[in-house]
Automatic annotation (TrEMBL):
Keywords: DNA-binding. Pfam families: HTH_3, HTH_31. SMART domains: HTH_XRE. The keyword DNA-binding applies. Residues 26-82, 91-145 form the HTH cro/C1-type domain. It comes from the Bacteria. The lineage of its organism: Bacteria, Bacillati, Actinomycetota, Actinomycetes, Kitasatosporales. PANTHER family: DNA-BIDING PHAGE PROTEIN, TRACRIPTIONAL REGULATORY PROTEIN-RELATED-RELATED. It comes from Streptomyces albipurpureus. This is XRE family transcriptional regulator.
Length: 309
């Protein structure tokens, strides 16, 4: 059975699309700023101990959404760059981006949790009297809040993926992150040290280090030699043209990236499609046949990715 994440044009009611949290990226930036895990956790608004930060960075746990703006501020990073998200904002994302828990947002309305919980889950819309209060608390216009409410109820504009909104990755670091995120489902992605080792072995000289790779991935450095670019393509098993420069990738490379993203959405054991999102309609036999056909056409583009049947 082919297992695929179905990309829909609208978000089903009550389905929250959270920001992406990459603990290894947080760790690299924190270390670059010479902060300990305890110091990051103690920053205003983060409010956790060092062990909790350690679990975030290792992927054992994830912070609550309302803490992400505080973490980004503590690391002096733009929220959208450090913790990107797909598609238009819904009500829960607006609240979290304002750094507010449900209890704190409820206090703004002076009522129970029910109105906010119902609106965020797509069960009942906010009363008109609440719209202005929450818009002010979230730091957005009433129009933006109502648009987010539409998204929470599955009636928003067609959701654009982050790749569609920001075109495709340009820098070497962005391309590394893209491939690591989407190209290794079911496999363990190489570490920064392994990538550096593969680059050096391919070039025959020690041209980069694990710290250099980490710095590339967080955007601390962007200047990359041609030999390192070629080595990165070798290390990540893609065509050398993908890392040729920092310009927008051409049609062939874009097709490869789309193949990577598509195959990266395959998860063994479940279909993250309409049924998993509460629709219960599942995927038709015709849709499954089409998915199988597309996978068969694309899977050869990623060496080492085995087809599933």
């Amino acid at each position: 059975m082919i297992v695929v994440k179905v990309i829909q044009t609208t978000t089903p009611p009550g389905v929250h699309v959270p920001r992406q949290f990459d603990g290894s990226k947080v760790r690299a930036i924190r270390r670059g700023k010479e902060l300990t895990q305890k110091q990051l956790g103690a920053h205003a608004g983060v409010g956790v101990g060092g062990p909790t930060v350690a679990r975030w960075e290792s992927g054992e746990e994830f912070p609550k959404g309302e803490k992400l703006p505080k973490i980004a501020k503590a690391l002096d990073q733009p929220l959208d760059e450090l913790f990107p998200h797909d598609g238009p904002a819904d009500l829960q994302l607006l609240r979290c981006d304002a750094g507010l828990s449900v209890a704190q947002a409820t206090a703004v309305l002076g009522t129970s949790r029910v109105p906010i919980s119902n609106a965020e889950s797509g069960r009942r819309r906010l009363q008109d009297a609440y719209v202005g209060l929450l818009a002010h608390a979230y730091g957005v216009t009433e129009k933006a809040l109502l648009a987010a409410q539409d998204v929470s109820f599955g009636e928003g504009p067609a959701a654009l993926s982050r790749d569609e909104r920001t075109s495709s990755p340009h820098t070497a670091g962005e391309k590394i992150n893209y491939l690591l995120e989407h190209g290794y489902t079911g496999r363990t992605p190489p570490s920064d040290e392994q990538i550096a080792q593969a680059v050096n072995e391919h070039g025959g000289v020690p041209s980069t280090t694990a710290d250099d790779i980490a710095a590339l991935r967080v955007g601390a450095i962007t200047d990359v030699s041609d030999s390192v670019r070629t080595g990165l393509a070798h290390a990540l098993d893609v065509d050398a043209s993908l890392f040729q420069d920092d310009a927008e990738v051409g049609p062939a490379a874009r097709e490869l990236l789309e193949a990577v993203r598509f195959l990266g959405s395959i998860h063994e054991g479940q279909i993250l499609g309409l049924a998993a999102r509460g629709n219960h309609a599942g995927l038709s036999a015709e849709m499954m046949a089409k998915i199988n056909e597309v996978v068969s056409e694309l899977k050869h583009k990623l060496p080492g990715v085995e087809g599933e049947s």
